Amino acid sequence: xxxxxxxxxxxxxxxxxxxxxxxxxxxxxxxxxxxxxxxxxxxxxxxxxxxxxxxxxxxxxxxxxxxxxxxxxxxxxxxxxxxxxxxxxxxxxxxxxxxxxxxxxxxxxxxxxxxxxxxxxxxxxxxxxxxxxxxx
Length: 136
What we know:
- This protein is mainly alpha-helical.
- The chain has seven helices and no strands.
- It has helices at 5-17, 31-37, 48-57, 62-74, 79-100, 107-125, 127-134.
């Protein structure tokens, strides 16, 4: 997904308001620079159609994806950074799930998004995620 500057600014607002975890250098980049880094859900090796479908299906998590794309694009390629980036992603997914579905009657939706958080974490921590990080 190619995001507009307006969409990136909306994601940044969510990141700040919900206090999502980001790498300290993240805030040194302006929305236009982050727009160039952001590629949506999934590695660039996947088809554009598949990634666009995932962006729609997982739209709640797009601010998390922005922070994670930053990590994968710009952090030094070490095992510690790979683990930290993926742990941040998982914690941020859980936070988004709690913030998006805060009411008791939304328990089922929250649980579904907790499960999606685990699936996303598994995906980025897998060999495919490792390849995307270390060979980017």
